[in-house]
Amino acid sequence: MDANEASDWKxxxxxxxxxxxxxxxxDLRARILSGTLARGSRLPSETKLAEAYGVSAATVxxxxxxxxxxxxxxxxxxxGAFVTAHPDRVLADSLQAVIQIERISVAHVLGVLGxxxxxxxxxxxxxxxxxxxDDLEAAADALDQTASGQDASTALLxxxxxxxxxxxxxxxMTLCGFLAGLQVRLAKERSGGMLDRKVTSRLSKDRRRVxxxxxxxxxxxxxxxxxxxxxxxxxVVLNLPAVESTTG
Length: 248
What we know:
Elements: H1 20-34, H2 46-53, H3 57-69, E1 73-76, E2 80-83, H4 87-102, H5 106-127, H6 130-144, H7 153-166, H8 170-190, H9 197-201, H10 204-215, H11 219-238
Antiparallel strand pairs: 1-2
Helix pairs in contact: 1-3, 2-3, 4-8, 5-7, 5-8, 5-10, 5-11, 6-7, 6-10, 7-8, 10-11
């Protein structure tokens, strides 16, 4: 049922003393992230929310603005506020904020991605379907076939996404997707705005060893091969012409 049509809609808990708008925002945010307010559903009207929480429409409007800024909802004039939260986007925005606020270094970002990709390779050897491993091999082929002088970033992202997908772990896919995109962006910035085929070709043999171990369903070998690949990958990126030492 559309949330706006639920006549018995009530707050999760009575508001305590303090910032009412912030409490309303957190209540609605929790409902969205838990799936109680599903993606695509419409929030109750400002009037209904104000009545339910016992506050003014202006207070509700402030909470709605906060949800909009957090990209959890979208206000469509004449139609109302709709839940638009997507796990990938929510997580990516949160991680990006942490990276900027804490001034996380390039090496730290690449180190975390390396650990995740290593785990993904190990899991892919165990959980990857034949179709997923075919996709991974096709992605490796496409990356190796990128012509010299062309931007290889899309092909590299495809390979890393296929590796994460073969792990069978949705959270791992989301985390790897965000950090892989960040790694590619950093590499492009360091190499003049384009990730040249010459850069990715340095790691071709390492990628093939990872793929071979996964194909053999040898989790231990896949883990070792992926670790070696990530160590070399970090050295390649960090040895590109220096830019800012942080991603923020």
